[in-house]
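FW: tagging you since you asked about this chain on Friday. Here's the raw sequence from the shared folder, copied in full. Didn't touch anything.
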Amino acid sequence: MLGRHETRISRLERDVSEIRIDFSSLENRLLYLNKDVMRIGDTVDVMNLKLEAMNAGIGRLDAKVDSIEVRVANIEGKLDISPAFEPN
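HL: got it, structure written out here
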């Protein structure tokens, strides 16, 4: 009878050991996934900063284009020739 109990205790010890290994493996996997999530967050933050910089650049380009359009309109206004002076 004692032999059966020892066998059961050995199985329980083995099972507990396997559970510890499983938990250790899960813990390592969670740490790895956590690092991945943090790395992705950092990447997203960097991309956000780049997009903000690009948007600011686009805003500056829009302002330049608007300025050029005003200058072109002024030049066109100065170049308008009266219909009386148009060649036939």
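FW: The radius of gyration is 38 Å.
HL: agreed, and The mean pLDDT is 87.
FW: great, closing this out.
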